[in-house]
Specification:
This is 2TM domain-containing protein. It holds the Pfam family 2TM. InterPro entries: 2TM_dom (IPR025698). It is built from 4 helices and no strands. It is elongated, with a radius of gyration of 35 Å. The chain is mostly helical.
Length: 145
Amino acid sequence: MFSKTKKTDRIDPEQREQYEYARHRIKQKKSLMRHFILFLVGSVLLIIINPVLGYGNDFFIKDWFIWAILIWTFIFLVHLFNVFVMNKFMDKEWEDRQLEKLKAKQATRIAELQKKVDTELQLPTTQPDTLKKNELNNPLPPDVQ
């Protein structure tokens, strides 16, 4: 009861990832619902502003609010498509697979370039046995002697 060590449940990485994914999906759906409510309120306001108040008849075509609502409907449908359809195809697993593919391509390309550099630019190798004892003890470069 009065012990100093508290028992805390640790979340393993897989559960943490599932939790983060669930939070992300909830945020997406919440944003979609906000967009839908804003769409409904905005559409009602556009319908009230144009025919009832007659605002915009002088500058635009007579039923301009219909075009505005249709464009907004298209934008809402794109948002809906992104949340419910595209998320199934391009989720975290898809990103991980793409990342692994790109890393593999990069590793093979680096290996090819390293092989090319090794074959074209071979470093001269000098054996320490071939150096004379005198050359090892001389601090001056060979052309100064």
